[in-house]
Amino acid sequence: MNSNEQKLTIETLLSSKDVFSRCIGIIKPEYFDPEYRPSVQYIAEYFHKYHNIPSSKALNAKFPEMEYEYREHIPVSEEQSSCDDIELFCKQQALYSAIEESIPKALSKDTKSFESILQSIQAALEVSLERDVGVEMFDDPEERMRRLVDAQIYEPTGISGIDEPLGGGLARRQFTLFSANSGGGKSIMMANIGANYAKRGYRVLLLSLELSEDMIFLRNTAIMSGVKAMDWKDNIPNIAQKLKEQSTNGGSFLIKRIPNGSSANDIRAYLKHYELTFKAKPDVIIVDYLDLLSPNGGVGKSMGVSEQDKLKSEQLAEVAYVYNAIMISASQQNREAIRMASPDQGVIAGGITKVNTVDNYISIYMDPAMRVQGDMIIYFLKTRSSSAVGSSKQLKFNADNLQITDTGHLPIRDIMAIPSKKNKLKMAVTGEELGLPGSISADDHTSDDTMEDNDGQAILSYSNPSPKTPETTPAIPHQDADSPPWETEEKPVKTVSKTIKKKLSNSNPLEELMQSFAHAN
User: Fold this and answer.
1) Which one of 93, 258, 471, 499 is CB 3.0 to 4.6 Å from 31, fit for a cystine?
2) Residue 395 — φ and ψ, nearest 5°?
């Protein structure tokens, strides 16, 4: 804008409340020529203090040499044109200022300055007017609901154990966070979901801050081909053919290694490169994993872990919203989660604030014994759009090809915490029961549901479904002196066709994997 256009812009702001309300948020005094900056500064300060527009008389009294005129009537078309001109002017001026400020930083060749340069240029590019007024609830609600049905809000992951509790799958512009103990299946779960989406024609982008691209590629070939991960060298033609067959739907699965400590702004910069290269945006963005990211601008000296995690989670969620993508990431769990059979949100490592922003938070439980057996349990600890909080699902894990699928085997009956000697003594004295979120009361178990003391480990019980309802014999007192106090009361003895028990323990998993026995009628 030249000088006359800048003066006309100020007069339009004074004369039209519509133009002023839409544009005041992006206008800065430094964008204007020096003679107009005091006027714009006064207008902005007056608005923030009195929540109104100063009159042209008040402005001329303050700056008599400017001689601003009040325009009685501005056509609607001119108002729209003025808004477009102001938006372009502010965006250009913001970009010029960002470039000018970045030159000394770039010449210093200080690598730490790169992040601030990127931030200032990114902020300049985002200068724009808010054009979305919002959603009016009473404006043809039937049409909007039908459009939402047609848009298929939820995109199925291909794993029913995840899709059903979440109402159909994961949604665009939502952030789903998985957590697990080290080696507990976080990356494998995300890779499986990504593979399922890619097979169905979605564009999947996996950004790894940890593993190399080659390692992830080999892991994904096992998941997508079904060939044993260790046997890929002997099955190259077979694997290549299967991957080629799965690419017919137009989907893609791009793997990119980014540096440990990258930020959401770094991810945005890469997504710009992705758009320019592929002329499209990714449908699914997987970040492996959240804990290795840094907040935009780096970590300040006074910034605690909780604040860092909050910022990282919020900034990654904003990327999902801007790119209309399904965002998936993961986090480690803390020590308390290692032996916790029924977790809560407190198991998340670092700051629990990272959970506050995400839409879905799912904890994965798979100890070494379960891994050998091929079992995995997921706990829904937060779901923003469903009632699945507190529920759990059992999945099957194939350790050979790393595939995670729905279970077609015996249904899980319950998860029970077996008390340590210290807790047994406490309950014997106080009568207090040991309860865990998502588990059932100890009184619901018969004596054969309890094994020897195992220092707080968990037992998973599986039962074969019986075609007939088991008969119940008269109740008799339980005589086992070693049983916990809650099992000494009279219990009915049930006839079950077959029971399989597995101890969840981190020690000697092969020896303690499975014990089978039959009950006589």
Assistant:
1) 93
2) -125, 165
